[in-house]
Amino acid sequence: MRSVQHKIGSTDLALARIKKLGLMVVLITVGVMNLPWMVGLAAVIFIEKIWRYGKAFSIAFGVALIIFACFVPWNPSLIPGLYMTGGM
């Protein structure tokens, strides 16, 4: 029984490490592209971790970002830096 629990625990640990790595990749990518978006995303993650309703907040914020992303193809100016404005 102990070996099964150990395998489950090590699987959870591996998944947690993969999620953290993915989060760091997203933060670095967003930070390189737009610093205010990175600060906002870090604030959302901080609120999710410390607030009692963090899980519901993160789901609601994720849905809001998906809805926001649906409007970007028709109005690219919603995301500054997505397109280069000046020619060389």
Key features?
mainly alpha
Q: Compute the number of strand runs.
A: 0
Mean pLDDT: 75
- Tally of separate domains: 2
Largest sheet, in brief, is:
none
**Proportion in β-strands:** under 5%
- The global form is globular
* Rg from Cα: 18 Å
Could you explain how this protein is built, in words?
There is one protein chain. This protein is mostly helical. The chain has two domains: 1-33; 35-79. The chain is 75% helix and 0% strand. It contains three helices and no strands. The chain has helices at residues 2-33, 35-50, 54-71. α1 (2-33) runs antiparallel to α2. It is globular, with a radius of gyration of 18 Å. It starts with a helix and ends in a 17-residue tail after the last helix. The model has no long low-confidence stretch (mean pLDDT 75).
Topology record:
Elements: H1 2-33, H2 35-50, H3 54-71
TL;DR?
By secondary structure, this protein is mainly alpha-helical.
